């Protein structure tokens, strides 16, 4: 990446710190998988008003698949509503809007 803030040393330090603290994809971990994370993503995208250099707990360590899904949702201005596809370890749908979760 060659665009600000991703081309700064400050971002690279923050990215390394996040990956050192959370080396596995946080989305995959919630599904019970141990996939290594390769990307660090803002929970709230910069283009949607998120800070460029947020506290580490406002970042996500993600594998390439989940990073691509989240980025696509952000581009459609659905980043806040981005949910992980699939089921929880107990078999229930992860999407709170899934009809299965209806009262």
TrEMBL record:
Highest taxon listed in the record's lineage: Bacteria
Region (Disordered): 84-103
InterPro entries named in the record: HNH
Domain HNH: 25-72
Entry keyword Hydrolase: yes
Gene3D superfamilies in UniProt: 1.10.30.50
An annotated Gene Ontology molecular function: nucleic acid binding
Pfam families xref list: HNH
Keywords tagged on the record: Endonuclease, Hydrolase, Nuclease
Name the record gives this protein: HNH endonuclease
């Amino acid at each position: 990446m060659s665009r600000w803030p991703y081309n700064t040393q400050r971002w690279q330090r923050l990215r390394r710190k996040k990956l050192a603290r959370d080396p596995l994809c946080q989305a995959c971990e919630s599904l019970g998988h141990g996939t290594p994370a390769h990307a660090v993503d803002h929970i709230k995208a910069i283009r949607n008003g998120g800070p460029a250099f947020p506290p580490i707990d406002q970042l996500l360590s993600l594998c390439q698949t989940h990073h691509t899904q989240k980025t696509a949702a952000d581009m459609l201005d659905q980043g806040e509503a981005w949910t992980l596809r699939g089921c929880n370890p107990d078999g229930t749908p992860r999407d709170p809007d899934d009809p299965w979760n209806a009262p």
